[in-house]
Amino acid sequence: SKFCCISARMLRHYDHIGLLHPAATDEQNGYRYYDSSQIPTFQRIEKLKRYGFSLAEIKRLLTLTEAELNIQILLQYERVKEQAASLTETLTCMERDISHFKEGITMNRNYHIIVMNTPEQRVFSVKRTIAIRARDIHGLISDLMAQAKERGLHRTGPCQLVYMGSEFNEDMMEVEAQLQVAEAHPDTKLLPDSLSVTTIHQGPLEEIHTGYQAICQYLDEHPEYQLTGISIERYLKDETMVSSAEELETAILFPVIKA
């Protein structure tokens, strides 16, 4: 226990779950005895715990070959890196709110809601299932722009994101990224003109839900407008046009008909 800096209680737990059995057990007093040959296994267990594996996962990992174990560690590295990026985004949002609080800026936003006609659009699009996080959306938009360039298409308006799923799922949502373009092409399509209830969110995408809440409240107060389609986020000022997330401008559009 002392040599490996593991409590006796934890050693008993390892034995109980079949993760690591003692080399010998005294039948009279129940004392567990371990030998020096087990030290590398102790060290590996503790390292895998630090990597974020559960004890049940570690029990399985200890049966793998070195090559198989290395693959699992690489996969875990990617998972931990994703978690770290998500935590960094959360910290950034918290720091922004704390800064606003210290400056006396209210967290409640005032949104101006309008009902507008959207003209027919020719768009090039890429459909994908992604996590609804700023970095994943930015990655999809970058891929959209690159594919449009490969096809010789020229941008005529902002990029936009259409949510395709019937239910919102932050971790796995089917979306379609669209770019307004000038040229007709086998990979482009025409979107018909439509009527939309719209507002503009200024600031980070992580806070855009407040804009959605404002539109939902407007629709509750104006029952003459009925939803006819899925929501669209139109990036009027995207990350390539601004120097900070506070300067981003995103239009939120809900297609409607007037009853």
UniProtKB/TrEMBL annotation:
Give any GO molecular function from the UniProt entry.
DNA-binding transcription factor activity
| Record InterPro entries | AraC_E-bd, DNA-bd_dom_put_sf, GyrI-like, MerR-type_HTH_dom, MerR_fam, Reg_factor_effector_dom_sf
In terms of SMART domains, this protein maps to: AraC_E_bind, HTH_MERR
DNA-binding listed as a keyword: yes
Highest rank taxon of the organism: Bacteria
Q: Quote the Gene3D superfamilies the UniProt record gives.
A: 1.10.1660.10, Regulatory factor, effector binding domain (3.20.80.10)
Tell me the keywords, alphabetical order.
Answer: DNA-binding
Domain named HTH merR-type: residues:
1-64
| UniProt name for this protein | Transcriptional regulator, effector binding domain protein
Taxonomy of origin reads:
Bacteria, Bacillati, Bacillota, Clostridia, Lachnospirales
